[in-house]
Specification:
The complex is a heterodimer of chains A (about 180) and B (about 350).
Chain A (H helix, E strand, L loop, with lengths): L19 E7 L2 E7 L5 H8 L18 E4 L2 E4 L12 E3 L12 H8 L9 H14 L5 H7 L10 H19 L2
Helix pairs in contact in A: 2-5
Chain B lengths: L4 E4 L3 H10 L3 E4 L5 H6 L7 E4 L8 E3 L5 E4 L4 H6 L1 H6 L1 H8 L4 H6 L2 H6 L5 H4 L41 H7 L3 E6 L2 E6 H4 L17 E8 L7 E8 L7 E12 L2 E10 L9 H5 L8 H11 L11 H19 L12
Parallel strand pairs in B: 1-3, 2-3
Antiparallel strand pairs in B: 4-5, 5-8, 6-7, 6-8, 9-10, 10-11
Helix pairs in contact in B: 5-9, 12-13
The chains are: A alpha+beta (about 180), B alpha+beta (about 350).
């Protein structure tokens, strides 16, 4: 490998591109991390910030297990470089419950049995939060289509759609005058 | 991923100067394709130039009556923009037929044009691939080529361009505005992507010191009679086996103008002007649409695993034109094809 820059220290050895300081506002708390440019947001959350609720599935943007919200939009954190999100507001599954109470989607996933092994669930729920905020899904067909980036190997799709539908209807009822 | 360094471009001029000075660098915006290719060791840029801070995130009216889409507008913002949805619904529909909601939130308009093929062998670094490593050969020609080209391929490469958006932009005759160290230029969409020929490693006619700054949509959006139909192995979140963008202008029961572009069949969105001319002046009918399809597919040749695409494409073209003529475009969340 061709060496281009001298490291300024750190445990990963000489020759690598130096670490950079990145500030992320994660679940309302400012977190400063020092990482190399190739560290994904997913690895930053899991390996640097000990927020292991966000899951690594395929690590190629195909399964949706790593879905988090960046500045309110759902994205896959495995194809996002942490260094490019300096200053951004990140919401992970750990940040959805408020005042000791689960988020309505977390409750609905439990009441509708929207998971079996649970590995895809943090991504499913973060994705569903984004889906409801986007406001483009009105029907079960539209929920299915706009949740197609989240794969569930246990096949809990009917219950996941039911959970999201229930919360969406609740959100609409609350919004009504 | 191997070691690389990372810089932010200050403005468009800085971006093109930096890429001109460092040919081993790459621009990064949404990163949905490039980061994946870097993880697979298919791409290994020495430097990433982050262009997400450049002021290219707006959609503006043009003097001609069209729209100018900044290169950094995310795919989802483009699809749901009220002006795009009303005046260019073919663009919205094509975007919503592709990828997933998360990826559309990340991916940029300019990056969509520059995404690379998903040919299995391009991704598999243990196999020969002329696009990845020129001169090593094409593994797809005698390999698993279900997803590969039936039109415009060469002996060196049978990869297809994976974009849905580009199929719609080809049909609408969009213009790609680019900036480089030698100045700005406008590239007609048909001239932006290229066929593989003897140099399949080159996907587009964008020079290495150029950056896409905007995509211009001409005033005519064909908003009354259009459809984007995508046929794929899964009902959602899969690349096209065949896709068709159809746009018609119908007056007094006769077709006045017609555009048909195919995706998933060639190294670039596929259009044939004679096929579109065949429709002009005609009443919409299955026979006429079939004639159009035959002209579009002239010279189509498949391989061991994808010859079915020729008949699939023919039927998809006829069906998409029927949907467009009837004013009943394919709705991407409804999987029934009417």
């Amino acid at each position: 490998m061709q060496l281009r820059t001298q490291a300024t220290g750190g445990p990963s050895g000489p020759g690598l591109t130096p670490k950079v300081q990145v500030t992320l506002r994660v679940n309302g708390v400012e977190r400063r991390v020092s990482l190399r440019p190739w560290t994904t947001l997913l690895d930053a959350l899991r390996e640097y910030l000990d927020l292991t609720g966000t899951k690594k599935g395929c690590d190629h943007g195909q399964c949706g297990a790593c879905t988090v919200l960046v500045d309110g939009r759902r994205i896959v954190s495995c194809l996002t470089l942490a260094v490019m999100k300096d200053g951004a507001e990140i919401t992970t599954i750990e940040g959805l419950a408020a005042n000791g109470e689960l988020h309505p989607l977390q409750k609905a996933f439990i009441s509708h049995d929207g998971f079996q092994c649970g590995y895809c669930t943090p991504g499913q729920i973060c994705s569903a939060v984004g889906l409801i905020a986007e406001g483009h899904a009105k029907t079960a067909d539209e929920i299915r289509e706009l949740m197609s980036g989240n794969i569930c190997r246990c096949g809990c799709y009917p219950n996941i759609v039911a959970a999201i539908e229930e919360v969406m209807q609740g959100a609409r009822t609350e919004a009504a005058p | 991923m191997i070691d690389f360094d990372y810089v932010k471009a200050r403005d468009v001029g800085d971006a093109v100067n930096q890429i001109a000075l460092n040919p081993a660098a790459k621009f990064i915006a949404g990163g949905t394709n490039l980061i994946d290719l870097m993880k697979e060791n298919v791409a290994s840029p020495a430097r990433l130039i982050d262009i997400t801070g450049l002021p290219l995130g707006e959609i503006e009216e043009t003097d001609a009556g069209g729209l100018l889409i900044g290169a950094l507008v995310p795919n989802s913002d483009l699809a749901y923009d009220p002006r795009i949805a009303k005046r260019y619904p073919l663009v919205s529909s094509a975007i919503l037929a592709g990828a997933s909601a998360q990826l559309r939130n990340m991916a940029s308009t300019g990056g969509n044009l520059l995404q690379r093929t998903r040919c299995l062998y391009f991704y598999d670094t243990t196999t020969p691939c002329n696009k990845r490593e020129p001169g090593t050969g094409c593994s797809a020609i005698d390999g698993f080529n279900r997803m590969n080209a039936i039109l415009g391929w060469s002996e060196t490469c049978i990869a297809v361009h994976p974009s849905d958006l580009c199929v719609a932009l080809a049909a609408l005759e969009a213009i790609v505005h680019v900036s480089g160290t030698k100045g700005d230029r406008a590239i007609p969409f048909a001239d932006f992507h290229r066929l593989p020929g003897d140099t399949p490693q080159i996907d587009t006619n964008l020079a290495c010191d150029e950056i896409i700054i905007a995509i211009e949509l001409p005033p005519e959006g064909f908003s009354s009679n259009y459809s984007y139909l995508k046929i794929r192995d899964r009902l959602s979140y899969a690349f096209a086996l065949v896709s068709v963008a159809a746009a018609l202008k119908i007056e007094g029961g006769a077709i006045k103008d017609a555009r048909v572009a195919l995706g998933g069949v060639a190294h670039k969105p596929w259009r044939v002007s004679d096929a579109e001319k065949r429709l002009v002046g005609q009443q919409p009918s299955r026979k006429t649409f079939g004639d159009c399809a035959d002209i579009l597919l002239q010279g189509a040749t498949g391989f061991a695993h994808n010859s079915f695409k020729i008949e699939l494409a023919r039927r998809a073209i006829v069906r998409t034109l029927e949907q467009a003529a009837a004013g009943t475009p394919q709705i991407q969340s409804v999987k029934a094809i009417i």
